[in-house]
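Provenance and format

Records in this collection were gathered into a single text stream. Each protein contributes a sequence line and a token line. The two records reproduced below are adjacent in the stream.
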Amino acid sequence: MSKSFNNTLLKFCLFPLLAALLLYITALTPLYLFQRAMIFHPQTNTSQEVTDFAQSTDYQIYRYENADGNPQKALFHQGRADKPLLLFFNGNAGTLDNADYFTSDLKQQDYSILLNIYRGYGDNSGSPSQNAFLTDIDALMTSLQQKGYAPKDIIPIGYSIGSASAVYTAAHYPQIQKLILIGSFSSIEDIAQNSFPFFPLKSLNLVKDPFRSIDLIQNIPAQKLFLHGDKDTIVRLAFGRKLYDQASDPKEFRLIKNGTHTNLWSLRAAQIMIDFIQKP
């Protein structure tokens, strides 16, 4: 067999492989570059809109400096002094309206509530990321402690991507006694890998904001309540179960029949949370 024939055969075999590799890289590149636009969907407001919302819903503007030393806002509702402060972390596309809706039954029980507003959401400056979310928690907790709220008197409540913030809070402040997670997940890495199984996102650490709650949950001593809908197609039940299975005791998993990612509050989720908060 001639050398020229071998070269022609080699080129014939290599060409489709190189073309396939090029197509693979072409598909992976925008996924990597624009992944934050897929994860975070900031709902923004003007300063006046935030003020008007607070006044119409019995909240006060809560001001503190974030981890970069820039001013940041949250919303605070004053409840009874002998009840815990509920620190609520919303979802990745959460609005002020749905945060208030999610916590309205808790407000009626006269709990103090702080609605966290992420960097880049509401009228807060900056851009959302895992680092921004989590380092701002430390700034917020420092501010709350300076105002007399000890970690033992704070209950983090995290919904969807906010569950990662709640897990981080309970893991880094072990005096916290209770933790509530709604539509939670093991990690954004796991969700991304499941959504794009043909790309090695997890093994090559290609997810910029992995939110690995599963690495923290086993070291949290607080009582833990997990709520998940059995028909959740956004954060699938398997990811919530994986996080629960890794969690240390004491823990409780409540599967809500006919629950999706967004309708749990119409299916007694609030009452389940109230019962959990009130139990010894």
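Adjacent record:
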Amino acid sequence: MINSKTANTIPVSAVFFDIDGTLLDFETHSLSASTVSAIRELKSRGLKVAVATSRPWRTMAEIPGLLDLDLDGYVTASGGQVYDGNQKLIYDASFSIPQLRQITSLAVQNDIPLYMAGDDILITASTPLIPAFLEKYHISIDGVHPWNGEHTPLVTTITEDTDNAIRVFSQIPGLLLVKGGPVNVDMRPDGLDKPEGIHRLMEHWNLPVQSYLAFGDTQIDAGMLQDARISAAMPWADQDARAAADFILEDHRENSLSEWLKSQGFITGEAKDSNREKTGN
């Protein structure tokens, strides 16, 4: 555990934020003014700032105000796809079509609906859990229908029996399963995770791959929280994220990120943002 009094003396070259539950909270689904100001001040101090999310590009890009931040990079699909600051795809290691065929076949056989997000965003079968799932992540879908065979970088279950989902899909070789929430088990090719995507982006920037500060809140973030030179879990983080992080933020609700960054000397908090309301409202 890093001494909280010395966090800002440990050299980092970049800052990576998870999105859902970190940059965005589950109550407002928006970027707070304090977070926007903090990101701009971090960038003004010469740090690279990026996101590392389970979302694929399309659902990430739909978040109001996110692309307006002019971030230096985007690690999407849990590390499966990486984009530079010009929004150019520089790395793609997401699912193969044969893997997707196996996943969707087992889902049909075991009556497990899937959320699949590519160019087409769909849920493969109807379930009463759909409204709450879409509301939690503040996302929309193009429809409820079977997978149409297209390349899809993000696949997750929608089922209350997540233990059964893990048992079912663990039959597929080379597939890593991570519980992302109460009804969703996120899937990705084994060996692929947020740190892998982050390292690709750090290499693209010609920076040491672990010289970054990371923020997250769930088991999916634990890998990058362990990998980062400095890491912090949100006040409402789950047990896995807390165990992996160097720090646990104090709860200042939508100001939790900015308050911690100020307390550790990464920002002064004096930078002013022209939009005084929450971005996206």
